[in-house]
C-alpha cells in the first residue's frame, strides 16, 4: 500500500500529486548534489485543496505531505514517493513529523496568534525532513489578520517550504491567497469506490461494504 491508496475516487488528484511529488524529490536531490533544478517542474510552493464534506481534502493534503517527506530506498531508484511505510511517510501521516505543522480552527476562527509561530517556522529550513510543510486544515476560517499573515508567507516563501491549504470551496479563501496556489478540487467519492476501499483495506464483506457505502 502507498499513501495514495486511501484517496477514494480521486484518481485525477492522485495522479497530479504523484507527479508533483516526483518532481519535488528531483528538486531536493538536485539541490543536494549542487545540480541545476529540473526544467518544467510540476511542483509548486502552495496548494489549495477544496471539496465537499467527505471528499477527503485534508486526507489528500496529508498524503501529499507524507509523499514529500518520503525517504524510501525505492524512491531513490525511480519509484514514486509515498511508500507509506518509511519513517518520513509514517510520521507525516500520524502528525508527528518535525517538519509537518498542522493548523486547525479552534472555535469559529483561526486567530493570528495561532498562526504566528507557524508562519515563523515556514521561513526555516527543514530540521530532519526534505521539506518544511505547513498544513492549514480550515483555511476558510482564517480571519483578516491571520489570512494576511499567511498571504505574506505564501507571497515570499522559503525555498524548501510548501503550504497546503484546505477549504470547502475556492470562494472560501481570500482571492489574493488562492491566486498564489495551485488548486485541486476533490469530488464526492462514488459508491463503488468507497465499497472497494472497505473491502480492500478493511476486509469487509462485499455486500456489507456496498450497503455501508450507499448509506454514507
UniProtKB/TrEMBL annotation:
Keywords: Nucleotidyltransferase, Transferase
EC number: 2.7.7.7
Any GO BP: DNA-templated DNA replication
SUPFAM superfamilies according to UniProt: P-loop containing nucleoside triphosphate hydrolases
UniProt-listed InterPro entries: DNA_Rep/Repair_Clamp_Loader, P-loop_NTPase
Domain of life per record: Bacteria
Pfam families: DNA_pol3_delta2 (PF13177)
MF GO annotations: DNA-directed DNA polymerase activity
Top-level EC class as recorded in UniProt: transferase
NCBIfam families for the chain: PRK07940.1
Protein name: DNA polymerase III subunit delta
Amino acid at each position: 500500500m502507498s499513501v495514495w491508496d486511501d484517496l477514494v475516487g480521486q484518481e485525477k488528484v492522485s495522479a497530479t500529486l504523484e507527479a508533483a511529488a516526483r518532481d519535488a524529490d528531483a528538486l531536493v536531490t538536485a539541490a543536494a548534489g549542487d545540480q541545476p533544478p529540473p526544467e518544467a517542474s510540476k511542483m509548486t510552493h502552495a496548494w489549495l485543496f477544496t471539496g465537499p464534506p467527505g471528499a477527503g481534502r485534508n486526507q489528500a493534503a496529508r498524503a501529499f505531505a507524507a509523499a514529500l517527506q518520503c525517504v524510501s530506498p525505492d524512491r531513490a531508484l525511480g519509484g514514486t514517493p509515498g511508500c507509506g511505510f518509511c519513517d518520513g511517510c509514517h510520521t507525516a501521516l500520524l502528525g508527528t513529523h518535525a517538519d509537518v505543522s498542522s493548523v486547525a480552527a479552534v472555535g469559529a476562527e483561526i486567530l493570528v496568534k495561532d498562526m504566528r509561530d507557524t508562519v515563523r517556522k515556514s521561513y526555516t529550513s527543514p530540521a530532519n525532513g526534505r521539506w518544511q510543510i505547513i498544513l492549514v486544515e480550515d483555511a476558510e476560517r482564517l480571519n483578516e489578520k491571520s489570512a494576511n499573515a499567511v498571504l505574506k508567507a505564501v507571497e515570499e516563501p522559503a525555498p524548501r517550504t510548501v503550504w497546503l491549504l484546505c477549504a470547502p470551496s475556492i470562494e472560501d479563501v481570500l482571492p489574493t491567497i488562492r491566486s498564489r496556489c495551485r488548486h485541486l478540487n476533490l469530488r464526492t467519492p462514488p459508491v463503488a469506490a468507497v465499497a472497494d476501499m472497505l473491502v480492500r483495506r478493511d476486509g469487509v464483506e462485499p455486500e456489507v461494504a456496498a450497503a455501508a457505502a450507499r448509506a454514507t
